[in-house]
């Protein structure tokens, strides 16, 4: 592997997509000193120009293809809805750009594997933007688990959800746009459980469906090696408290707002609770940006904190859950 970004120069970013998540990402990225946003691409000149003016970005492209072809861009952040992740990511990789792609990496495991294959063929960096993995509080969780602070891990519980008004034409409720709770927010607890338990040996799921046929809330149980269990939930019908617990034989770890945590409480058996606080520098997106920069400057093509295999494995778990609840998308292909 070669390092194609000089340590003395900023990492030059392009933003693909101009929706709400792109604006939130920009807030975090602007807090990273060696990041420079040089271009934005959208599906129209008007939206690209508006985003560029808002964030003082020098180049605005009216198509995703034009952004992918921009030789002045080192890495592209793909901020489109997840049903539009696969094609522009592959396009950017083939054009020689590195890619950070929003979660979930793809609609299904076949698409995710194809994106990984494209990165491997192009010798480019690719990472799923699972911001949970890179928060300082999550690093502390991994350290505590590695040192056996709560004994042998036995169970993970994690839930996330919010009430989204039913709109049969809206993205979240549209089968054509791969809508539903599972891919939009359920990817978070699935990825969290995967980080803690490793590969799942079995997956069970039940769902309530919206009139359009997509899943509006899902309850899952997953099994890891050695009989470890995960109890996971997601909803676009109701505000599930954003709490996660990792339970071991000699204690537990509790996190609130766990999908991008700013702290945790360690409960050791027979001891007072220990609180650890890790306030964000900006809004939490800055940590995945810093991870990308570390890997790019080292000439690496994936992050061990969110590897290609891990992203494909999470996509496989989501596929399995959708199979259990009977949700498929029109025209879905791998």
TrEMBL record:
Record key words, sorted: Oxidoreductase
Domain Gfo/Idh/MocA-like oxidoreductase N-terminal: 11-127
InterPro entries xref list: Gfo/Idh/MocA-like_OxRdtase_N, Gfo/Idh/MocA_domain, GFO_IDH_MocA-like_dom, NAD(P)-bd_dom_sf
Record flagged with keyword Oxidoreductase: yes
Domain GFO/IDH/MocA-like oxidoreductase: 139-253
Short name of any one Pfam family annotated for the protein: GFO_IDH_MocA
Family designation: Belongs to the Gfo/Idh/MocA family.
PANTHER family attached to this UniProt entry: OXIDOREDUCTASES, TRANS-1,2-DIHYDROBENZENE-1,2-DIOL DEHYDROGENASE
Official protein name in the record: Gfo/Idh/MocA family protein
Organism: Streptomonospora arabica
Lineage, opening ranks: Bacteria, Bacillati, Actinomycetota, Actinomycetes, Streptosporangiales
């Amino acid at each position: 592997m070669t390092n194609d970004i000089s340590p003395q120069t900023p990492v030059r970013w392009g933003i693909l997509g101009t929706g709400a998540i792109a604006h939130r990402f920009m807030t975090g990225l602007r807090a990273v000193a060696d990041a420079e946003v040089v271009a934005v691409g959208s599906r129209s000149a008007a939206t690209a120009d508006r985003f560029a003016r808002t964030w003082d970005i020098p180049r605005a492209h009216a198509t995703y293809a034009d952004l992918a072809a921009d030789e002045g861009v080192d890495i592209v952040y793909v901020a489109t809805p997840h049903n539009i992740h696969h094609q522009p990511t592959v396009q950017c990789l083939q054009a020689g750009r590195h890619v950070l792609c929003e979660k979930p990496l793809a609609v299904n495991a076949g698409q995710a594997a194809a994106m990984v294959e494209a990165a491997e063929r192009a010798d480019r960096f690719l990472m799923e933007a699972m911001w949970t993995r890179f928060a300082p509080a999550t690093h502390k969780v991994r350290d505590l688990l590695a040192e056996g602070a709560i004994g042998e891990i036995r169970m993970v519980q994690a839930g996330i959800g919010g009430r989204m008004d039913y709109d049969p034409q809206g993205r979240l409720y549209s089968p054509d746009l791969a809508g539903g709770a599972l891919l939009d927010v359920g990817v978070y607890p699935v990825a969290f459980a995967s980080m803690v338990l490793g590969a799942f040996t079995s997956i069970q799921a039940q769902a309530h469906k919206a009139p359009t046929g997509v899943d509006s809330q899902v309850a899952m149980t997953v099994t890891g090696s050695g009989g470890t269990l995960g109890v996971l939930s997601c909803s676009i019908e109701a505000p599930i408290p954003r709490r996660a617990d990792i339970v071991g034989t000699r204690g537990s770890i509790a996190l609130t707002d766990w999908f991008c945590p700013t702290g945790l409480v360690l409960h050791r058996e027979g001891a007072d609770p220990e609180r650890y606080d890790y306030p964000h520098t900006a809004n939490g997106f800055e940590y995945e940006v810093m991870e990308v920069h570390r890997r790019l400057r080292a000439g690496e093509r994936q992050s061990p904190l969110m590897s290609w295999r891990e992203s494909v494995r999470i996509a496989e778990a989501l596929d399995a859950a959708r199979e259990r609840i009977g949700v498929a998308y029109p025209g879905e292909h791998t």
